From TrEMBL:
Residues 1-23 are annotated as: Disordered. Residues 1-16 have a biased composition (Polar residues). This is Magnesium transporter. Residues 29-103 form the General stress protein 17M-like domain. Keywords: Membrane, Transmembrane, Transmembrane helix. The chain crosses the membrane at residues 77-99, 111-131. Pfam families: YflT. It comes from Amycolatopsis acidicola. InterPro entries: GSP17M-like_dom (IPR025889). The keyword Transmembrane helix applies.
Length: 177
């Protein structure tokens, strides 16, 4: 299975996908409360040799969900900045050590990169945390989710697709195929 993102261009020319964002077209042949269920419906259609190129999964009633992970304090902000800056500095230092004119492998560029990265990471994290002025004292992760997921199909195959998905819905839960 190949998954492409909204900005990837792999295979677009042969699939006839528009280059600009456009509203989806087709007739609804199924509606599901989770993306996994909608994806499972399309997988079922594919197993039945259905023309899945005519199918689109559409998220309806989009919501931005921000899940709070934990409290954010000066210590956590500075520690996170030091770690991320340190990793970046270490990577830059290792790359610079490859171009070191001295003979043999030296660890000095990697060590300097690590320390410099940690310092810059702490400074940037302190600046970013100070700018929030206590308005955002928590860390979180955001997700775009939909209230429901509709499966659309082009009119030429919509009736067949709807029939196949209706048969899938009539199966007892847990059966495969």
């Amino acid at each position: 299975m190949t998954v492409t993102g909204p900005f990837s261009s792999a295979g677009r020319s042969q699939q006839g996908l528009p280059r600009m964002p456009t509203p989806p077209s087709g007739w609804p042949i199924g509606s599901y409360s989770t993306y996994a269920e909608a994806q499972g419906a399309v997988e079922h259609l594919a197993k039945q040799d259905f023309t899945v190129e005519d199918v689109t999964i559409v998220g309806v009633d989009l919501m931005l969900v921000e899940r709070v992970i934990g409290r954010l304090s000066w210590g956590k902000a500075l520690g996170s900045g030091a770690v991320s800056g340190g990793w970046f500095g270490l990577l830059v230092g290792i790359l610079l050590s490859f171009f070191n004119p001295s003979n043999g492998v030296t660890y000095q560029p990697a060590l300097v990169g690590l320390v410099a990265g940690m310092v810059f990471g702490v400074v940037l994290a302190a600046g970013a945390y100070a700018m929030t002025r206590g308005r955002h004292d928590f860390s979180s992760a955001s997700q775009l989710v939909a209230g429901r997921y509709d499966v659309l199909c082009q009119p030429r195959n919509a009736e067949q697709g709807r029939d196949l998905l209706a048969k899938l819905a009539m199966r007892p839960s847990g059966s495969t195929g």
